[in-house]
Amino acid sequence: MRRPFHMLAMLLASLTVLAATGRFAPVAAHEGHDHGAASSPPAAAAPRTETHSDLFEVVAILAPDGRLRIHLDRFPTAEPVPGATIALTVDGDPADVAADGSYSHVARHPALTQAGRRNLLFTVTAGAEMDLLPATLELPAPAAAGVATPAAPEWRAVARNPLAWTAGLLLLLLGAAIGRVTAPRQLPPQAVSNPLPGAGDIVRSLRPDRAAARTTALAALLLLPVLAQAQPIDAPRRQPDGSVFVPKPTQHLLGLRAVAAERSEAAVSLQLVGQVIADPNASGRVQSAEASRIEAPEDGFPVIGQQVARGQRLAYAVPVIAAQDRAGVRASIADIEAQIVITEARLRRLTAIASTVAAREISDARAELEGLRQRRAANLPAVVGREPILAPASGVISVVRVAAGQVVDAREPLFDIVDPARLWVEAIAFDPAAVTEIAGATAVTASGQALRLAFVGRGLALRQQALPLQFRLEEVPAGLVVGQPVTVSVQTPRRLAGIVLPAEAVVRSAEGPPIVFEMPGAERFVPRPVRVQPLDGRRVLVTAGLEPGMRVVTEAAGLVSQVR
After folding, report:
1. Domain of life here (predicted)?
2. For helices 162-182 and 2-23, angle between their N-to-C axes, nearest 10 degrees
3. Tens digits of residue pLDDT in 318-364
4. How many Å apart are CA 402 and CA 296, to the nearest integer?
5. Residue-range domain boundaries for the chain
6. Residue 223 CB contacts under 8 Å (≥ 6 apart), including other chains
7. How many helices (H) and strands (E) does the chain have?
């Protein structure tokens, strides 16, 4: 007797699955509301209308409570118009319109709650600008406001819908779990068989199964409306034809902007790999002239980022010589000091008898004594002296390679000094003939920061099969460092016709080729494959794939491409 209730639980779960999958079936078109048009919003979207003029664009969306939410933007830039006032008439009768403070207005009118076609007239005033925008709003019948039941459900489309499979699998697991709990279990064998149950025992044994069946039915009734509202009404989504539906409120959150395509001419550019280098006239590298031991100055070694001036003492270098050479130097110094003592004594004797000796002898003795003293001074630093290391240029310490007591070899770099306000960019060109004439150049960092460059010169010798080109940064932004990689765009005198767009307007499609998004409607975006030619770090030239007059998304195009 328990098997029928077990089957009832499974049947209720299966019916819930079928009801849920019906939610995901395509909505059939009904009278006055056509879902088959390619430019229309999705079937699950709320009733809406759109209209535009040369100045403004209006999108009106009917909320479930009968209020009409009006979104006002500039045309064709899709930029919200703050502080504007809107007056609305519905079939010639004025409606109550109030701003809600989020780039939109809310209108109320009794006719908006009744099915049929409504003629709307928007009067927009923004400062000194005013415009009239007519529109037509199709209101569905009240029966169509709920969940539409398809007359002929397309089961193949349902089978391809992942939401239907997910909901069906979850409910199937729920029904299986409830059925397993309510299924009869075998009792262990007993030595003495039980007597046949009476009618009262049978009734008592059926009560748990009936309770489980009621629980399953209650769960099915609770899950059905939840599944019916599983997907938001006006959520961004990709249409079957490949276009993307993005409601106006979502566009405002994304900061979406657009521009009308215009054909023009621009200089053809070449993309080169480069890096930031220091200006050779405003930088310096400190090296050791000979093998020596490094000692810190009185105020310590300079640190990275410290500002130094030309001639400032950075460190001391104590020459390092071999023990045998040191002994020879000391012997030479001792010999010189002995000669100094002898010469000083002779000079004193000659001075005492200056009246009886020639003045030339006294001057020779003095010159000899001075020479001996200079020889001693020249040999003393090799034993006990140290040489100061001075900054060759003013700037900022960028590299420090010294430590107290460190022994360095000759020509070993110790400090690098760079002036952060004077930087260059060096690029390499593998085709020297393509850069014989340079009309201008720009660069862009890995983070997208644009740099303006001035051409300095090109090399006459190849470096690793490439020709080096050097440019001067006209304005050095904060945070730019030596060695940072950049992409250099070199403009040539040759010009090419096309449509100039910001670089962020071009995104990569799922297949890889570049695309842009056209706005044929206020809330519909169509991907257009294009052929682009980079101009500089901020602009590109579209040479194929777009026609003049098309509205193209220039900001938030990458976010639109992520809608699925």
Report:
1. Bacteria
2. 170
3. 888 766 666 777 778 888 888 888 888 888 888 888 878 888 888 88
4. 9
5. 2-26+150-235, 48-145, 257-277+420-561, 283-418
6. 16, 20, 171
7. 8, 32
The pLDDT-based confidence of 186 (bands split at 50, 70, 90) is low
For residue 153, whether the previous peptide bond is cis, meaning omega lies within 30 degrees of 0, is no
Fill in the amino acid letter for 404. A
Cα 77 to Cα 52, 256, 259, distances in angstroms: 12, 9, 5
What distance in Å separates the CA atoms of residue 251 and residue 78, rounded to the nearest whole number? 9
- One CATH from 3.40.50.2000, 2.40.30.170, 2.40.110.20, 2.60.120.10 for 257-277+420-561: 2.40.30.170
pLDDT tens per residue, range 102-153: 778 999 999 998 899 999 999 999 999 999 999 999 998 864 444 444 444 4
pLDDT, one tens digit per residue, over 397-425 is 999 999 999 999 999 999 999 999 999 99
| Burial class for 198, CB neighbours closer than 10 Å (0-12, 13-18, 19+) | exposed
CA distances from 141 to 31, 138, 198, 518 (A): 8, 10, 58, 33
pLDDT at position 512 is 86
Burial 426-448 (b: 16+ CB within 10 A, else e): bbbbeeeeebeebebbbbbbeee
Residues 6+ apart with CB under 8 A from 17: 167, 168, 171, 172
Tell me what percent of the chain is helix, strand and coil, each rounded to the nearest 5. 30, 35, 35
Token readout for 328 is 């020879």
Tokens of 97: 């319109």
Nearest to 397 by CA among 482, 479, 292, 291: 482
Which two structure tokens, joined as six digits, stand for 152? Answer: 């002929």
- pLDDT tens for residues 438-452? 888 999 898 888 899
On the question of pLDDT at 8 being above 80, the answer is no
d(CA 56, CA 123): 11
CA distance 207 to 109: 55
Query: 56 near 81, Cβ under 8 Å?
Result: yes
Q: DSSP class of residue 381? A: G
Q: Is the pLDDT of residue 311 over 60?
A: yes
β-strand 244-245 against 257-260: which pairing, if any?
unpaired
Rounded distance, CA 47 to CA 495, Å?
48
At residue 9, does pLDDT exceed 90? no
**pTM, entire model:** 0.60
User: Which CATH class name applies to 283-418?
Assistant: mainly beta
Evaluate whether 499 touches 548 at the Cβ level (below 8 Å).
yes
